[in-house]
Every structure is written in structure tokens, then in C-alpha cells.
Amino acid sequence: MKLTLKIWRQKNADTKGKIVEYPIDGIDGDMSFLEMLDILNEDLINKGEEPVAFDHDCREGICGMCSLHINGEPHGPDKGITTCQLHMRMFKDGDTIFIEPFRANAFPVIKDLVVDRSSFERIQHAGGFISVNTSGNTIDANAIPVNKHDADEAFEAATCIGCGACVASCKNSSAMLFVAAKVSQYALLPQGKVEATERVLNMVKQMDEEGFGNCTNTGACEMECPKGISLEYIARMNREYMAASLKG
Amino acid sequence: MGGIFNSSVGRKFAMALSAFFLMIFLVQHFAINILSVFSADIFNEASHFMGTFWVVQYIFQPILIFGVIFHFVMGMVLEIRNRNARSIGYVKYNGNANSTWMSRNMIYTGAVILLFLGLHFYDFWFPEIQVKFIDGDMSGLLDNGEYRYFEHLQHKFVDGWRVALYCLAFVFLALHLLHGFSSAFQSVGANNKYTRGLRGFGKAYAIIIPLGFIFIALYHHFN
């Protein structure tokens, strides 16, 4: 397969970036998208040029590190996958592929296609945890009964890998789906209910302070989420937030 | 409590509440307007009641005006904040892959509706205010002793260009409601087993109400 890649190149956070065109040949449909970029980088290194910087780690769709905006969509044209799970068979010989970093002011570009998603970490620090006594008096989690429905919903929310595709796909750069998943995964379980009020208030406050946009319910985040996190979690967070605000 | 509406969740909640109020108002407005197709007398009676009953005039009307202004101002505030959240846009952005045109362009459909409201107020609301509160004539009667409401309505829809503008605005209203109806429920946290049915109802509402207004405008133009 012969392709034309149009890749965002940016030396560092302080310089302006631009799209640079790279022709590439000999790409097999069974290769992953990141393997294709590996081949491009080998070519660039052999030519003495700077390789394209991009985030990746597990390459199994688990870690949430890969974060490319491919042909106008986060994680590319396939659904329910991360960039590392995208295969080149999704493209045709002769295609032009635009590859850009996830865009949001809260995700500043560090270099080329690598963005700083530590804003997600700070939101987690604001409330994405439960406080448990670990000084020898830990209660077995299984000692507290949890009904099946709540457990399933909490686990579904917990599948969020924090990749940021929700923010990247949203026309408003809203992080509501991520925050809603993180709020819900604790709030649905008895261990998380103790701090539920403070959690939702603090996490939403931090989200707003990071400069993410407001949700306008376009549903793009749900469509592009590699783990299929539902908009129902945003509705749940909205309810919890308003109830917590009235209490607090 | 005071900080609720300074938060992103609180702002969308407030936006949804104003949307619910405006959507209920639309049904009431349509219900009265459609009477004009069936009976001039009943339309006149209903219009006179709405135009002179103190609860409508001094309680509901100010709330409605506040609701309209709030909805548009909050919409603009949200739009500005959202644009500021992404200073550098994508070179290639395929919004159609994951969302509807209506959901991504609420600010534009809303702006067209706002412009239409200017025309609508010029046509109907300002003359009402002039007659009732400046001239002090609360009778609602013409010189010939008949109510003026039906005559005023028919007179306004004589011009083809005005009818065309009204019809165009109602198309934009439909586009706005096609996303806005279900979006308002999502914003107040109502997403459950009834959501699928509610979306269907919302689509029907978003098409039937504007289509009904178009029908009324065309009916009076051709009659």
C-alpha cells in the first residue's frame, strides 16, 4: 500500500507547528497504525531526519497512552478501539492520511503528536479515590454486598482508560465523559458513597479550572470512546452534581 | 448553592431549565395560533384573554422575556467559553462521523431564531405594547367594533416575503429543537430506560410544532 501522510510537526510547546507531508510505501493492511509510524520513523532516522514523536505504551488498547487524531477522528475511522488497535486495512492504496495531536488548550502539545494530559491526573487527584484505613484494619471489599446492577455499571465506568478521545472529539473540548466515568465508578459502590458529595464537586471544579469546555450533548465523545462509555454517566454526574451543590 | 451556576454542569442545567420553559411556551403559542385556522372568533377571544389577563401579562410575560434573554445570553456565554477551550483547531475535522449537524450548530440555528424574533416582535409584540400600554387601549377592538387580532394576523401574512422568512425561521426552529429537546433532558440528568422513547417524542415535537406554524403562515397567506 502506498500512502501520503500529512503529519503535524511541532518542535516543542513554545514553537508553532505545521503539517508536513511524507510519502510512504510498502505498507501492509495487517500492520497496525503505530507499526506504520514506526516504519516511517525508521526511514526518517536513516535519512538523518528527526523522527515523529507520538505517545504509545502497551499497544493493546489498555493503557490509554496512544492519542492520535486520524483523518478528523480521535483514534481514526474504526470504532471502539484505540489508535494502537487501528489496522492499516482501514485505509486504501493511495489514501492521504491526516495525523494530528489531540487538540484542547487543556492538552497542550509537548512535541509533534505528543500532548500533555496531566490535567486528567489533576482531576483524579481532586477526588478520584476512596479513603480506606490500610493500617491493619482493612475490611475485605467483598464483605460489603453490592447489587449486580450497580457493580456492572461501576465496572463499565471503570473501563475508561483516560485516553482523552472524548475531549479530542468534542467540538467544545469538554472532559465531561471522562469525569463522569471517574465519578460514577466510585459513586455507584458503597465504598465510594462516603465521599460522593465532595468528590463530584471537587472533580467538576478541577475540570472547569483546567479550561475544558462545556458539554452540549453532541454525543461525539460516546461515539469515539474506545471503551464505549455511555452518555448515561454524564447524566448521572449532572444529577449528582446538582444534588451535591444543594446539599453543600 | 450560589456557585452552582458558575460551574459547567450548573450552566448547562440552567440552560436546560430555560429550554423546558420555552418549549412549553411554544406548545401554548401553537395551540392559540392554530385556532385562527378553525375560527376567527375563537382565536380573537383567546388572543384577547391572553393579551389582557393580568396573570399572563404581568407574571408569565416578564418570565417569558427573561427566559428568552437568559437562553440566548447563556448560549452565547457557553459558546465563547467552548471556543476558548481550543485555540488551535484541527486541520481535518470529521464531525459528521460522530455527531449530527444540528448538535454542532445550535449557536447558528439559535442566532437565526433570535433574528426571527426581532421580526416577530416588530410584527406583533411591539404593536400590542403600543396599543395597550402606550395608547392605553385595552379593549382589543377595531373602529368597527370587532376584535383586531385576527385581522392583524391576516394582514401580516399578505406579503410573500414575510411568509417566506417565517417559514425559513421555522425550519431553523425545527433544526434547533431536533437536538435541543433531548439535550435538555440529558442536561438535567434524565437519561434512563425512557430516553429512547423520549428521543422519538422529541423528534416528533421538533417537526410537528414548526411544521404547524408553517401551515398557519401559509394558510393565512393563501386565504
Q: At the first level of CATH, what is the class of chain B?
A: Mainly Alpha
Low-confidence stretches of chain B: none
Total domains of chain B, how many? Answer: 1
CATH topology name of the largest domain in chain A, in short, is: Fumarate Reductase Iron-sulfur Protein, Chain B, domain 2
Q: How far is the N terminus from the C terminus of chain A?
A: 59 Å
Biggest interface found: A-B, 49 and 42 residues
Instruction: Report the CATH architecture of chain B.
Output: Up-down Bundle
How many separate helices of chain B? 8
CATH topology annotation of chain B: 3 helical TM bundles of succinate and fumarate reductases
Oligomer: heterodimer
CATH class of the largest domain in chain A: Mainly Alpha
Q: Total domains of chain A, how many?
A: 2
> Element order, helices and strands of chain B?
HHHHHHHH
Helix content percent band of chain A: 25-40%
Amount of beta strand of chain B: under 5%
Q: Average pLDDT value of chain A?
A: 95
Order of helices and strands of chain A, N to C?
A: EEHEEEEEHHHHHHHH
